[in-house]
């Protein structure tokens, strides 16, 4: 497939994606599907099959990228390998990502059960995730005839998410209300495991990283709790990744964060992978915080599934992503147009994508449409 | 402030110990347990639901209030049963569907339904579909509440409804649905009996479906 590039001056997905993460333009807006299900469904395998044989996962990522022509591949992200190595038991469904089977830490006494100092190359299933990154790198270089043409994105869990996985979400929320000092202690301890994992992923060949926090959204905790308790650890995590690896970082505030986007942008990520939130509101807020010198937002990733007419006031709670799954190609194209024009029109770089994980069984034609829309509406005039 | 009003405020603020003390004090003063429930505890948790809706309260505070309510229910329920009051408004089975672990909201629904007089079996999150069917067969509930927070597990709800139909037990109960991606249109489309947007409205819906409104 990539021999095509050799005889042209076409920009590669790597150049396109990295430029956008740096705030620069190339030929067009990149498109990133967070293609877990695209790849597995294209190959016709379940998640468990790809987990039991990591080479199947690598094959799925490579072949699906060549089929759909989006601009980034991903590792096994959102997997919980660090939480598992700390001590949380995971269960492995047949066709879904592993889930925490039961909370590891319910009482302070349980803290003794946790293994906080981790070696990503030795503990639990972390080496398996690193193997996938290493193999992706090898395979991409091989298929690119000596040059890596498609970037690899890895993933890291913000300390608040990690802590919530260890305690269970219900206990985590109770902890924030009852014993915030303990919550802070947990985030301090949970911080290093994922940082080491991301550093190791970079050493194995990851080119960029996304981090997420689903437990500090506006419908979960108050702005005050966010500002005082969990946000400082998001920012610390992002800054530590940048310091140790130099990788570009995208943060995904998962869910609805409209009352705190000004704070989210101060986490100093390079880009933000927006959840189901009004694109105009989020872009305007990013421009304001950038102009005030409070943030360094270069690109906005997302958020097809949310940019509908009913959400233009920026405050109406929105349903989760359904356009990619249930919508028509025309609807996807229109939402993609709104996203690209809103972001690029404000002087930020757009990375087109869904507003959360693409859902399983999304029609292939809808995935194709998003890549098509990136070309149709996102090509820059020379 | 009268004692019921105080209980209401203590539930709202999630002050478990003080709420418990005051419920005990109210019982010692001879107040009707049903009155304490309806005009103290339930009103307190309803205030929480309203505060959550208008972004004055969030999950940690809601969880604290629910914990306080649950503790108080433990001492009130036996008294209500002994007094012949508190006859169950109906049996409810609640489950978050397979593939989705998010059950915090559903737990609040359970607490609210329990405080409204329903007998609740809370199955938690990521409940395998066969377990839901088995629970319906065993418990013979009046209502089945299904929730999902994730759009990619929405398809499980119609699957459960279809199995209930195939097994010939669909007409023996009413099915309520809820969760972040769920809307009334979806409820109509899949053939559920009702949709509730939050915990407070789930009680109103449950009563309506049971003909108690």
SSE arrangement:
The complex is a heterodimer of chains A (382) and B (213).
Chain A: H1 3-6, H2 13-21, H3 36-43, H4 47-52, H5 54-68, E1 73-74, H6 81-86, E2 90-91, E3 99-100, H7 126-143, E4 152-157, H8 159-167, H9 169-178, H10 180-204, E5 208-213, H11 223-245, E6 248-253, H12 261-264, E7 271-273, H13 279-291, E8 299-304, H14 323-326, H15 329-345, E9 349-354, H16 364-378
Parallel strand pairs in A: 1-4, 4-5, 5-6, 6-7, 7-8, 8-9
Antiparallel strand pairs in A: 2-3
Chain B: H1 3-12, H2 16-28, H3 33-53, H4 59-82, E1 90-96, H5 104-115, E2 118-122, H6 129-139, E3 143-147, H7 156-166, E4 174-178, H8 184-190, E5 194-195, H9 199-209
Parallel strand pairs in B: 1-2, 1-3, 3-4, 4-5
Q: What do these coordinates show?
A:
The complex is a heterodimer of chains A (382) and B (213). Chain A is α/β, with parallel strands linked by helices and 382 residues long. Chain A contains 16 helices and 9 strands. Chain A has one domain (3-378): Alpha-Beta Barrel (TIM Barrel), CATH 3.20.20.210. By secondary structure, chain B is α/β, with parallel strands linked by helices. Chain B folds into 2 domains: 3-82, Orthogonal Bundle (Methyltransferase, Methionine Synthase (B12-binding Domains), Chain A, domain 1), CATH 1.10.1240.10; 90-209, Rossmann fold (3-Layer(aba) Sandwich), CATH 3.40.50.280. Chain B has helices at 3-12, 16-28, 33-53, 59-82, 104-115, 129-139, 156-166, 184-190, 199-209; strands at residues 90-96, 118-122, 143-147, 174-178, 194-195. The A-B interface holds A 93, 96, 99-100, 169-170, 173-174, 176-178, 218-222, 225, 259, 319-322, 325, 357, 359-361 and B 14, 55, 58-61, 63-64, 67, 99, 101-102, 104, 107, 126, 149-152, 155, 180-181, 183.
The number of domains of chain B is 2
User: What is the helix/strand order of chain A?
Assistant: HHHHHEHEEHEHHHEHEHEHEHHEH
**Secondary structural class of chain A:** alpha/beta
How are the strands ordered across the major sheet of chain B? 2-1-3-4-5
- Total number of β-strand segments of chain B? 5
Q: Main β-sheet of chain B: number of strands, strand sense, barrel status? A: 5 strands, parallel
